[in-house]
Inverse folding.
């Protein structure tokens, strides 16, 4: 039986940085939620951060382009920029291919 650390390591911790309710931001949120629901089921935590409402978090992550997805775990941190419409690219970035 896996220990609690192994179970936690299997959870995808994702942070999506967006700019308000812009069309690009809305598209990124919708596309990413669809991908997560199809491929990660209940094995992910998604934090959506609006840089207008939480500028300090964006500054601490050194955001240079938006929308930006940061995969914190499992494995190495990965960053993906764009509206997440290229499903294969997102899956590859999450290490799911």
């Amino acid at each position: 039986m896996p220990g609690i650390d192994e179970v936690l390591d299997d959870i995808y911790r994702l942070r999506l940085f967006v700019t308000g309710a812009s069309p690009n931001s809305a598209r990124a949120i919708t596309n990413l939620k669809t991908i997560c629901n199809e491929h990660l089921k209940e094995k992910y935590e998604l934090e959506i951060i609006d840089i207008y409402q939480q500028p300090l978090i964006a500054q601490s992550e050194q955001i240079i382009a938006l929308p930006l997805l940061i995969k914190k775990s499992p494995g190495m941190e990965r960053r993906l920029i764009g509206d997440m419409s290229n499903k294969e690219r997102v899956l590859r970035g999450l290490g799911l291919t």
Observations:
- The helical segments are 4-9, 23-39, 55-60, 87-93.
- The chain has four helices and four strands.
- Residues 1-7 have pLDDT under 50 and may be disordered.
